[in-house]
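Moderator note: this is an archived Q&A kept for reference. The question asked for a predicted structure of one protein chain; the sequence and the answer are reproduced below.
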Amino acid sequence: MRHLVVSSAGLNGRLNRLERDGWIVRTASPDDRRRSLVSLTVQGREEFDRRLEGHLAVERELLSVLDARERVIVVGALRKLLLVLEASE
């Protein structure tokens, strides 16, 4: 929720749609019955893989305007942001 910047209701709505469409299954957490474990179905994995290809193509196109030095700078900045996000977990 925190990484997606959505409320628990917003996240639950998204998960409901993914479950309805057959992309995920939810099971009760053995440690905390207020939580659910979410897993991709075979259909969900196939759809994710298919959509990932398109996403990566857009990324490559966006990054193609940067030279090698600029890409190194972007990678460093993104790595720094990722470390902050991971530390807040």
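Archived answer notes: The longest helix spans residues 42-63.
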